[in-house]
Write a structure and sequence with these properties.
about 325 residues, alpha+beta, Arc Repressor Mutant, subunit A, Alpha-Beta Plaits, 8-stranded antiparallel barrel, two-stranded antiparallel sheet
């Protein structure tokens, strides 16, 4: 990986284009940027090799929360045990994201499992084996109102911010062959032919399955970008309490704010959690004041600044936020 890559305006437009359409062809991307397909491909390869951006694939967390099991886990550790714990946990496919945070807990994990029984085993067996563990607190997610795959570099488009409820009625389910496709997608832009070779299926079959997974809302594709390059270099998490009758309206309003990357209802006294990207530490106080004025039903109970995002939706990050490697999110994997 290159030591330094300063993206120019065209690079940022390329990332934004892939945030909107992660599997668009290079001809389509090039046409949007006003460059040829070869140039668009070359620019993306430079960003990829520098750890500045990458397209990842994972189960759609909004639908997953309805049919399976999402959770936030707070982990308390002895100070000398943190590095080893991070090394172990970063390789667990069910742990999608890991942050080292500033107060109240040492690690903050986002977890996807097929069911509550698997979550219980992860907490009661895998985490309990960590040397230096002091304790854990698990908060099951009941509804995901907004998540990071809808965030854009400009982060201003009202069309992106509005909360859209999940469709009611019959929903697609994760079949075995869909799981096989997900397991073969270390890169969200992997060509169907490559996935076909890894799964011993035909390219046309894989393309059809991918279309079913994406069109049915099972699969999320995210163009992840190194946070320092976005202009929003500070990450924070807010915990809040909202009366049950006001929860939906309040959470939906929060998803319209450009700072909000993730907003989810959870079990426990603090029934709403949001993760934020901010332009400065001072924005924390500004945003708190803004929320108090706009959303009187919302009571903030705690907040923490991310000291180091170790893992974000499967991407392993260095201390500058650049992508070093990928551990694909796989809720069904053994651990």
């Amino acid at each position: 990986m290159q030591d330094v890559l300063i993206p120019d305006e065209t690079d940022l437009k390329l990332v934004h284009a892939l945030q909107a359409a992660p599997r668009a062809t290079w001809h389509e991307i090039g046409r949007l940027l006003g460059v040829d397909a070869v140039t668009a491909t070359r620019r993306w390869q430079r960003l990829l090799e520098a750890g500045s951006a990458r397209v990842t694939a994972y189960p759609d967390v909004r639908l997953w929360a309805q049919d399976h099991c999402n959770a936030f886990i707070e982990v308390d550790l002895q100070p000398t045990a943190r590095a080893q714990a991070v090394e172990v946990l970063s390789r667990v496919p069910q742990i999608a994201s890991i942050s080292i945070v500033s107060s109240g807990r040492d690690l903050f994990l986002t977890v996807l499992t097929p069911d509550l029984a698997t979550l219980s085993r992860l907490v009661l067996e895998k985490l309990q084996q960590l040397p230096g563990l002091r304790g854990t607190r698990t908060h099951a997610i009941t509804t995901v109102y907004g998540e990071g795959n809808h965030w854009r570099l400009d982060a201003l488009s009202p069309r992106r911010r509005a909360y859209v409820p999940l469709a009611t009625g019959s929903r697609p389910v994760w079949k075995d062959h869909y799981r096989a496709v997900l397991g073969a997608m270390e890169d969200g832009r992997s060509p169907a032919a490559d996935i076909a070779a890894r799964t011993a299926r035909s390219g046309s079959t894989v393309r059809r399955w991918l279309n079913e997974m994406i069109g049915g809302g099972l699969l999320s594709l995210r163009c992840e970008v190194a946070q320092p390059l976005t202009g929003w270099p500070v990450a924070a998490t807010f915990w809040a309490r909202v009366p049950p009758g006001e929860l939906h309206r309040t959470a939906s309003a929060l998803t319209e704010l450009p700072e909000v990357r993730l907003c989810a209802a959870t079990t426990g006294a603090d029934n709403l959690v949001m993760t934020l990207w901010l332009r400065s530490l001072g924005d924390i106080q500004r945003l708190e004041a803004e929320l108090a004025g706009k959303l009187p039903a919302l009571t903030l109970t705690d907040r923490a600044v991310t000291l180091h995002a170790v893992k974000r939706m499967g991407c392993l990050l260095d201390d500058t936020g650049r992508i070093l490697d990928v551990v694909p999110v796989d809720p069904w994997a053994s651990f």
